[in-house]
Amino acid sequence: MDNTTKPSVKVGELEFPPRKVWMKTYGCQMNMHDSERIVSHLSGMNFSVTEDQSDADLVIFNTCAVRDLANQKFYSALGETKKSILKNPKIDPETGMKKDVIIAAGGCIAQTEGKELVKKYKQLDFAFGTDVIDNIGEMVYRAYAGDKKFAVTSWDRSENYSIETKITPGTPMAFVNIIKGCDKFCSYCIVPFTRGREKSRRLKEVVTDVKRLVEYSGIQEVMLLGQNVNSFGKDNGESLAQLIGELDQINGLERLRYTTSHPYDVTDELVEAHRTAKKLANHLHLPVQSGSNTVLQRMLREYTIEHYLTLLEKMRRANSEIIITTDMIAGFPNETEEEHKATLDLLDKAQFDFIYGYTYSPRKGTKATRINDVLTDDIRLRRLKEIQDKQMVIQAALRSQMIGKTYRVLVEDKNISKGIQKWSGRTSCHRLVHFEGTEPEKNYQWNWVDVEITSVTALSTQGTLV
Ligand code: SAM
Ligand code: SF4
Ligand code: F3S
């Protein structure tokens, strides 16, 4: 049914005709999942998603504050939105009059700067933080009732963290939040300020939730989410390893992943889960940040490189197929050339399959900003490039070992490459694999297929259907 034939729905005192919401999400998987929750709540208020901003009645930016670049992207997109709405005002088809488009900003920037944002940006109607996602309906109601220029950035003070997972209909993959917030306060990181204190859901609730998703919504792959999933259940005498053990028993669930892990909290019990849980993916994303112990100390990361490497060894002993990926920050304040070399050395020792590398970006309010830093942007960029160049060589060698082997892939997408249509999906070890379908008319999306790898480079893996 299109929007012209859909009936209005009554919410409280207001009629909600069919409307369109356009969303832009920045940042991590937690933010992506928050956007999924927002859309799910708004569908009950007669909103459907549009990919075309000029077609939207409601524009929502779900923001990220992790590095300055993320902030800048949002500010510039907000500016462009104002310009495009002024140039092409939305016209009400019934009255022929200009229609108000409501613009909101949520997420991590909005959590810490919500009030300032609505004051500073005239086009912004309201802002909302990370802990009020499930109240989006009330906020949108307020905005349509005529209340403008408000910011809701309160924290949920209740002891329990209890939710029901919302999904995007039509996909067999679900993000499932198991813990929110972060108590680590790494010296460079804004997340503890934008996401608040750690709070876990109860293990039983998560298991019931996932069973429901598998049984009634056709979910086959689950990604357990949290800024530090290894802290899951700490306050309740429960653990991530126990949770994995229980989820592994669910009939119909094919694959289980989790992200993100902090090396300090990886227990032997969790290593053991990688040996015993059949559905747990052959992949671990374990951010290391630096290869230098002195930098790790200044980052307040609470582990040494020796400890980190021992963890990798244990994981690889538990599951010989496991693939390790990581995050790195180049040019932490006053990082010396020697400290940077230690990071390059770590690449040889750790044999990562992929690195998300960043240059250090000072974040207001974090401890690292108190350091009188002498490094320049050029030094940081040069060091990041050195890390990435070295990693490309390691990565190409590691991935070449895939040639001739067959991998089970859940097909996610298709694209055209050099005039040929190819499908793509991820292996259990999280590598993206491209292949050509054998039946041109067949829609392979969300099918499980076996793909034999025929060629690889550091960044691309190609195969054929078995
Ligand atoms: N919780 C995860 C962890 O413990 O590593 C990751 C959180 S953060 C959202 C994702 C990555 O962003 C981090 O691993 C780090 O590499 C990077 N990051 C965080 N703050 C940064 C900063 N101020 N400058 C550059 N990179 C940063
Ligand atoms: Fe940020 Fe550290 Fe928390 Fe990860 S563990 S979110 S890097 S403070
Ligand atoms: Fe960004 Fe917030 Fe995630 S700062 S990386 S969206 S937790």
Give a quick precis of the structure.
Helix content is 33%, strand content 23%. By secondary structure, it is of the alpha/beta class. Helix 7 (240-247) packs parallel to helix 8.
Query: Count of DSSP helices?
Result: 12
Ligand inventory: S-adenosylmethionine, iron/sulfur cluster, FE3-S4 cluster
Q: Determine the fraction of residues in helical runs and give it as a percent range.
A: 25-40%
**CATH class value of the largest domain:** Alpha Beta
Q: Which band does the percent of strand residues land in?
A: 15-25%
Largest sheet: 6 strands, parallel
| Strand element count | 21
User: Whole-number average pLDDT?
Assistant: 95
Low-confidence stretches: none
What order do the strands of the largest sheet run in, or round the barrel if closed? 4-3-5-6-7-8
Distance between the termini: 40 Å
Per CATH, what is the topology of the largest domain? Rossmann fold
Sum up the overall morphology in one term: globular
Describe this structure as you would to a colleague:
By secondary structure, the protein is of the alpha/beta class. Helices cover 33% and strands 23% of the residues. It has four domains: 9-152, 3-Layer(aba) Sandwich (Rossmann fold), CATH 3.40.50.12160; 159-281, Transcription Regulator spoIIAA, CATH 3.30.750.210; 291-400, Transcription Regulator spoIIAA (2-Layer Sandwich), CATH 3.30.750; 406-465, OB fold (Dihydrolipoamide Acetyltransferase, E2P), CATH 2.40.50. The strands form six sheets. The chain has a six-stranded parallel sheet, with helices on both faces. It has a five-stranded mixed beta barrel with strand order 17-18-19-21-20. Strand 7 (126-128), helix 4 and strand 8 (150-152) form a beta-alpha-beta unit. Helix 6 packs parallel to helix 7 (240-247) and helix 8 (268-276) packs parallel to helix 10 (305-318).
